[in-house]
């Protein structure tokens, strides 16, 4: 890998690590100050939405070959998370204070602080062994936590609201199914 690519990846991964650290700090600060999970979305959502959208660069990184990940897996992760945070949670005020959103944001933030820090250290060629250990063991807990009681639970809770509001009806009007049906299939 060229020196320019390495420096770019160091900057990108450092930027993401710092951004997710700020998100995690906002979530934990809100929890400590209010003694409640309410307010998590309001405190961290704008930054999380921005960082998640910026993560599309990882698809491009794979496409141009500066990382070995390829395109499909980063695209699937980016698409799933971006759909969750922008098309569902951001669109439905009724979901924003639910425990499932708190769990998702907390798991994502913790996981991404670790992952991007690991990648940044890797760009320096000097990743501490404890960071590598943390990267591959914390994932075992954080990934299922973010997906199960986080994303999937929130999407399940969103279904009645989506059906009632006929969410995205205009976007799906020419198709033989609704967004509600799409989400049910996605979750099965």
From TrEMBL:
It comes from the Eukaryota. It is found in: Endoplasmic reticulum membrane; Membrane. It is a multi-pass membrane protein. Coiled coil: none annotated. The chain crosses the membrane at residues 7-29, 41-67. GO terms for molecular function: very-long-chain (3R)-3-hydroxyacyl-CoA dehydratase activity. Its EC number is 4.2.1.134. Pathway: Lipid metabolism; fatty acid biosynthesis. GO terms for cellular component: endoplasmic reticulum membrane. It catalyses: a very-long-chain (3R)-3-hydroxyacyl-CoA = a very-long-chain (2E)-enoyl-CoA + H2O. Keywords: Endoplasmic reticulum, Fatty acid biosynthesis, Fatty acid metabolism, Lipid biosynthesis, Lipid metabolism, Lyase, Membrane, Transmembrane, Transmembrane helix. It is an enzyme of class 4 (lyase). One of its GO terms (biological process) is fatty acid biosynthetic process. Belongs to the very long-chain fatty acids dehydratase HACD family. Catalyzes the third of the four reactions of the long-chain fatty acids elongation cycle. This endoplasmic reticulum-bound enzymatic process, allows the addition of two carbons to the chain of long- and very long-chain fatty acids/VLCFAs per cycle. This enzyme catalyzes the dehydration of the 3-hydroxyacyl-CoA intermediate into trans-2,3-enoyl-CoA, within each cycle of fatty acid elongation. Thereby, it participates to the production of VLCFAs of different chain lengths that are involved in multiple biological processes as precursors of membrane lipids and lipid mediators. This is Very-long-chain (3R)-3-hydroxyacyl-CoA dehydratase. It comes from Glycine max. The gene is LOC100527607.
């Amino acid at each position: 890998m060229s020196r320019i690519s390495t420096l770019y990846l160091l900057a990108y991964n450092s930027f993401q690590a710092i951004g997710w650290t700020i998100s995690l700090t906002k979530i934990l600060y809100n929890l400590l100050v209010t003694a409640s999970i309410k307010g998590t979305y309001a405190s961290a959502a704008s930054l999380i939405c921005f960082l998640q959208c910026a993560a599309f660069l990882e698809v491009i990184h794979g496409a141009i070959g500066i990382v070995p990940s390829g395109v499909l897996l980063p695209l699937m992760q980016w698409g799933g998370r971006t759909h969750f945070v922008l098309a569902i949670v951001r669109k439905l005020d009724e979901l924003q204070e639910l425990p499932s959103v708190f769990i998702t944001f907390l798991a994502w933030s913790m996981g991404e602080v670790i992952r991007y820090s690991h990648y940044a250290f890797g760009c320096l060629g000097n990743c501490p062994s404890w960071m590598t250990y943390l990267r591959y063991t914390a994932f075992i807990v954080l990934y299922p936590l973010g997906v199960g009681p986080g994303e999937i639970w929130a999407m399940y809770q969103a279904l009645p609201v989506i059906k009632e509001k006929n969410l995205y009806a205009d976007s799906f009007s020419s198709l033989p199914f609704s967004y509600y049906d799409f989400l049910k299939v996605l979750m099965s």
